[in-house]
Amino acid sequence: MAETFATDAKLLVDKHVEFIQNLDKKQDRLEYWMTEHLRVSGIYWGLVVLFLLRRPHALDHEQIISYVLSCQNADGGFGGHTNHDSHLLYTMSSVQILAMLNALDRVDGLRVTKYVLSLQTKSPMTTVCGDKWGEHDTRFAFIALAILSFFNTQDQLDVSGVVEYVRGAMNYDGGFGSKPGGESHAAQVYTSVAALALAGRLDIVDRDRLSSWLAERQLPCGGLNGRPQKLEDVCYAWWVGSALDILQRRHWIQASKLASFVLSAQDEKGGIADRPGDVADVYHTCFGIAGLALVRYPGLEEVDPVYCMPRSVVEQLGLDKWQSNVPESWSQ
């Protein structure tokens, strides 16, 4: 049944498009240079916004492609900006950007695969690090599986070992932490559930317990938090909503109230903040609009809950096969 959105607030489509277009025109501001390391991710967030708003050509695609390719390093990975060290986070964003712009054929998938595989470690447990310095958590387990799926090289990773690492991060409440022993957190739940979806091991999830934990993240204001006793934040419209979508339990939260909260955090000049009254930024704009797309807010492109890209792009690339990994009993 289609969701009814009872709210007086409207999505400021034109203003959000202008907000994204103006991000690279603020080079006279200190914040622009202090966030240089996030440049590639910022482009990804902005592109997601534009694609979901059905304005994909609001930025120059060829200029973006050339810039992203310039961020690839000799090790095959991508940095957050030119001449920055490679990291899985920025490699993922780069691959997603190239995928959305139909330019994956302009990068050597074998080089990217080699970089991802170089970050797998088996001591003291099988997992994937974010970069050569050794940080590991469930984010990187998901990202490694996701990047390799773009190039059909996922079988070169020790998938069963990565699955056991993710399983070890599952807690008594059904949620997942950043690593074994870590506190359950909605963002880590998304990365863990998405990783298991890609690995074909969603059977590991305690679906009912986890769905309940996620549904409890919705507060009276309609917004969602990332863990108990924390404030609502627009970005959890995605982190919570995507996990529920994969679990086929999106209806366990009130979509209309969530949409009202996200819309209330819009800046009249464009962009969305973490909550009403705060300063808008591209990160929250991305995940706020992606969250609205998850609950089928009118006028938006559908979004894939695993890849956080337009469903049409995911289907075109044949990446929607993760859906066949959903247990049959979940649809009954």
Describe it:
The chain has 332 residues and is mainly alpha-helical. Helix content is 45%, strand content 1%. The protein has 14 helices and two strands; from the N terminus they run ααααααββαααααααα. A two-stranded antiparallel sheet has the order 1-2. α3 runs parallel beside α5, α3 runs parallel beside α13 (282-294) and α9 (186-199) packs parallel to α11. The longest helix has 14 residues, at 39-52. The protein is globular, with a radius of gyration of 19 Å. It starts with 12 loop residues before the first helix and ends in a 16-residue tail after the last helix. The model has no long low-confidence stretch (mean pLDDT 95).
Concise structural overview:
The protein is mostly helical and 332 residues long.
Report the uncertain regions.
Answer: none
Gap between N and C termini, in Å? 16 Å
Secondary structure tally: strands: 2
Oligomer: single chain
Major sheet, described briefly? 2 strands, antiparallel
* Topology pattern, helix = H, strand = E: HHHHHHEEHHHHHHHH
Assign a percent range to the helix content: 40-55%
Shape: globular
Strand order of the largest sheet: 1-2
Number of helical elements:
14
Radius of gyration: 19 Å
Q: Average the pLDDT over all residues and give the rounded result.
A: 95
- What amount of the residues lies in strands? under 5%
Going by helix content, strand content and strand pairing, the class is mainly alpha
